[in-house]
Amino acid sequence: MPTGVCSDFSLKYIEILVESQTTEVSAKAQGSNSAFDVLMNVNRVKKYDWLPEKKDDPKNRQEKLYNEILDVCVTQFSVCFNEKQKDVGMLIINTLTDVCWFLDPFIERFEKRCINIPKVWKFHGFRDWRSQHKKPPQISSEELAKKSNALAKVLMLPWWLNRSFSAFKDSVSELLSAMEYYHKSLTDQLERTQRNHYSSTPVRSVADNWGLTVIEAEEMQR
C-alpha cells in the first residue's frame, strides 16, 4: 500500500501479519520460478486418479452418450481429477453430455454453414427423434445461448489451469467457439428478418426481378 494513502486517512499504525509456511522454497527456486509455477508444482503433488463412474446399465440414450463422453475424455485427453474435485469432474462431464445431446440433431446444420465442431464432439444418432415419432427438433438462439453459457462457465473453473489438460481445454474451447458462431449467425438472421418486416421499402428492388415483353394486339387475338 502506498505510504501516501496512510497520510490521507490519518493512519498512525500499520499492522503486519506474517504467516509461516510449512513448505520451504529455496531462494534459487524463488528467483527462477513464477508464482504460477510454484502453484502448479504444488498441484502436481496431488493425486489425479479419480474419475466419474460409468453407467454400467444405461437406461436411455442420454446415459449411453454420457459413457461415450467419458470415454473420449479419458482415452483422447487423459482427463482425471483428484479426490477433492469430484464435484468439478461431475460438472464437466455432465455439461459436455448435455451440450452434445443438444447438438446431436443439428450437426449437419453446422456443417452446411461451414462451422466446424471438433470431431471428438460430433455425436450423432443418440437423440433419435425419428424412432420416437417426434417432429424434427428446431434449434433456437435462446436454447443455444443457454448451452453456450453453461459450457463457458465450466471453462472458467480453476481446474483447467493444470497444463496437463491443455489439449482438452483447447478442444472444448473450439466446441464453444463453434456454438457461439452459430448463435451469432442465428441472431443476425433474426435481426435482418425483423428489419425487413418493419421496413417501409421492399426488400428487393423491382428493377432486379422483372422483365417487360410487348405483346401486339394481333398476337393477343390469335
Low-confidence stretches: 22-30
Order of helices and strands: HHHHHHHHH
End-to-end span in angstroms? 100 Å
Percent helix:
40-55%
> What general form does the structure show?
elongated
The chain-level structural class is: mainly alpha
Number of helices: 9
Please give the radius of gyration in angstroms: 29 Å
Name the average pLDDT.
80
What is the makeup of the main sheet? none
What does this structure look like?
The protein is an all-alpha fold. The chain has a domain at 45-193. The chain is built from 9 helices and no strands. The protein is elongated and about 100 Å long.
List strands and helices in order, with pairings.
Blueprint: H1 3-8, H2 27-32, H3 35-45, H4 61-77, H5 86-103, H6 107-112, H7 141-154, H8 166-198, H9 217-221
Characteristics:
mainly alpha; elongated; 222 residues; 9 helices; 0% strand
Quick summary of this structure?
With 222 residues, the chain is mostly helical.
